[in-house]
Write a structure and sequence with these properties.
The longest helix has 20 residues. A seven-stranded mixed beta sheet has the order 3-2-1-4-5-9-8. The protein has a two-stranded antiparallel sheet with strand order 6-7. The chain is globular and about 55 Å long. Helix 1 packs across helix 12, helix 10 runs antiparallel to helix 12 and helix 11 crosses helix 12. The protein is an alpha/beta fold. The protein is built from twelve helices and nine strands.
Length: about 350
Amino acid sequence: MSAEQKLPSDQEVRAGVRGSLKFWVGKLECGGDVEKQWFYKQKFIKKLRESDIAVETEKANEQHYEVPTEYFTTILGKWRKYSCCYWPEGVNDLEQAEEAMMKMYAEQAKLEDGHAVMDLGCGWGAMTLWVLQNYPQCTVVCVSNSQTQREYIAGEAAKRGFSDRLEAVTADANVFNTDKTFDRIFSIEMFEHMRNYERLFQKVSSWLKPDGRLFTQILCHREFPYAFDTRQDADTEWMAKHFFTGGTMPSADLFLYFQDEVCLVDHWRMNGKHYTRTLDTWLEKLDANIDQVREIMTKTYGEGAAKQIFNWRMFFMFCSEVFQYKDGNEWMVSFHLFRKR
């Protein structure tokens, strides 16, 4: 990125994203032909069944989870929740929105004190630490593909006196297994990094107690699932190369096609504008702390720091526009509660 290049303004970036979304939605809708929509959806589901559980896991790790922890502690809220937050009426700051969402998870999953809990794809441990703080008889096993995240969570648990109730595990989802069983398994925005949901649900169901429940949160499209494609000129090329290599955009109903080992108990949807507000708040925090962010990125990426900052700002703006498209009713957040079959 040369000094002579004039970067587009934020307003220009957002307008460009909205234009590309209009084109992309038109493509997904196949001109309104329901038979074509069904054909491509079934073709995609068949491809998922033939895939590994997850692909390109090391690349995904590099893109999100081995980024300096200091960067995320600067832009995220108090709980370091790196996923959509909930902004009901009366919630006006990020910490409140983080807590409102996690409280909703617990209510929807009917979490009880004393439950054995797994936090699968735990990020920086928001749900893990929130459960340990608010349910003093619960134990938690948290699983992440990132050593950086495991170290951060273990350190925070030690500071707060939770170490005796926490087991923090670093593992690849393709190979991870455990003999332990759980009353509740939470997986917050991890399934989007997976491909073969049939095999994934088979694995996860084996970790549930007979009356256990699996609770998932995903970002999704209202109807049409698709893969993030790194091929040149693919519609998702930029996002796939920089942030979601190997990722999947589920449809809100995608998991309903994979119920051999689990059975749906309940399903909820949340308007995408809750995610837009979350993303815009992260971007505001990045911009308000730009000198600190620049220093953090320079330590890790050297001369590539400016490009990293540019990409992260683009990522937040792009996703912000995605989730507020069509007033938040095209791309959204979806929650599922499953039991064992």
